[in-house]
Specification:
4 domains, alpha/beta, Molybdopterin biosynthesis moea protein, domain 2, 9 helices, 444 residues, Molybdenum Cofactor Biosythetic Enzyme, Chain A
Length: 444
Amino acid sequence: MTDAVERHDPATGLVPFETYLADVLDRVEPLAVERIGIAFGDDLTGRHIAEPITAVWNTPGFTNSAMDGFAVASRDLAGVGEARAEVEADGPIVGADPTSGASQVTLPVSGDIAAGSSGTWTPGTAVRIMTGAPMPEGTDTVVPVEHTDHPSAHEPLPETVRLPADWPGDRHVRHRGSDVQAGSEVLPAGTPLDGAALTALMAAGVFSAPVRSRARVGIIVTGDELVSLDDVSIAGGVVGDGKILDSNATLVRATLESFGAEVVFEETSSDDPDAFDAALGRAWQVGIDCLITTGGASVGAHDVTRRVLAAHGVVFVAVAMQPAKPQGFGVVDGVVVCALPGNPGAVHASLHVIVRPIIAKLTGARSTGPVPMVVAEGWSAKPGMRQFVPVTIEDGRIRPVIEGGVASHRFRSLARADGLAIVTEDVTEVRVGEQLPVVVTRSW
């Protein structure tokens, strides 16, 4: 962080946002790698694959039918009659109705293969086959039931079946290893272990995975003005003059959990340095990888966070960003410490544009980055600052949730916002029709 302080703009005294974030991430070390099972009930939430994973076996493991239909050898349907049925890639066959006059082939039905079973084929015959059932040796194509004179797969096994002539080979067949071949990469490092990833691993014969540990995070919210929800309940719903209900703890916890972090410590501290230092000690005893504090990060007379954490080596700077200009960062006894300002809008922005990349690096998660979107309603911007403007998103178009774009103390704007539009330092006016990068903050 010393570099960030040295690289501030001499004219403004502010550290450019990109400089600050780069210096922060440069000091964050990924958490340890461990191997965990991926069976039902294993501790998978918030985990990301630490190394590329290769397949143990082929997927599919055997050549199988992609449709309910009849497995045949395409040569048994070739060159029969004068007319030729027209075949669409995935649509119906023109003239597939046996009464339409298109050329047809009648074959005896020699077997029935359901998913989970196997069977054999006799040359010159058709075998009824269900989706996922293995293709019998000697057959090379499947005619779906809707292209035959037996359009229902639920009727008794027929003795014969009429099929379109000249049906092409290799239709509706899933070949062994056509999805993933043994030894090839199934998933890259950084992939979250969600349902889709787990399914892909198990299908490829992988039943354990190297992952980064889940980030264990502590939260300390500071301020003599804060009143907990429990205290408000005891007082009959009265907050009191000069007091405000502590909502930052809820905001930080819920947001961190959405990032896949595990909140293991949470406490509200007064602005007394000894009380805050004691809270730090309790957080360290729990065993945390990262500490998030809110409030007291600026230069006020009672900004306890800055006073106490600076003594532990945390560096506080003014970042050229709005909201959330006051920021503090350091690594104390191996714990990543992020000191955020206290206004909810500033906390919200800091969590998404600073803390989220930190959690991603700790846990090995891939960063999705901002998404370009079209401005549907313009607003004025503040030059010289990287602005993170709460916006609504509808069909890829954005609108500011409040007039003027940014107000760090307004709660309702956070609840209405779907993302944070990024406005660079050189912009004074955001115009309709322009594209802006947007950090999506809400999951639909």
